[in-house]
Amino acid sequence: NAGVTQTPKFQVLKTGQSMTLQCAQDMNHNSMYWYRQDPGMGLRLIYYSASEGTTDKGEVPNGYNVSRLNKREFSLRLESAAPSQTSVYFCASSEGRTGLNTEAFFGQGTRLTVV
Amino acid sequence: QKEVEQNSGPLSVPEGAIASLNCTYSDRGSQSFFWYRQYSGKSPELIMSIYSNGDKEDGRFTAQLNKASQYVSLLIRDSQPSDSATYLCAVNFWETGANNLFFGTGTRLTVIP
Fold first, then answer.
1. B contact set with A (CB within 8 A)
2. Which residue of chain A is at minimal alpha-carbon distance from B4?
3. Which of residues A2 and B99 earns the better pLDDT score?
């Protein structure tokens, strides 16, 4: 039972490079999320997808794009990485069909450093 | 702007004591409330969910919700050194057909043997 799987676990980028963080869940969840976590800032929502085919901005979307490829997969793309995007990125998913029973389950995280 | 507030701590309690963690939230329309535990370098792990006013107990953990006061708390009884972690409060805001889950900054708990 894999749950939520993120790749890669670690990544170092140079300023201006691009990359895509991959996320897949096998729990048949409708909603998926991307968060970043910085020291003292908690988890901040970047983008979310309420269902297959829809995506919406969260609190801190600037510099990111997302794709909900299918129900299982939700990717996060950095088009031109900046040092301010150095962070730990978490993907999460939840059943999300209604306002209740919306426990989110997290992947193991991607530690990204932009130099 | 949806806000979830927690005391960042650190909160230190001796082994065997009760640890009390608190959280307030800004939106009265919030429907679901969660406590996550996060060990250093690991991902958040769900430990409690609560949806209605009152108490919910699960083993050594008790979640308390008061929607009128916009307040949710977590009590950990008989605290163990293995409980030392950061505890994140999360609040679900259901709007426009989508779920948004917002987190507080977390409270770091240290249980002293």
1. 8, 31-32, 34, 42-46, 49, 51, 88, 90, 92, 94, 97-106
2. A42
3. A2
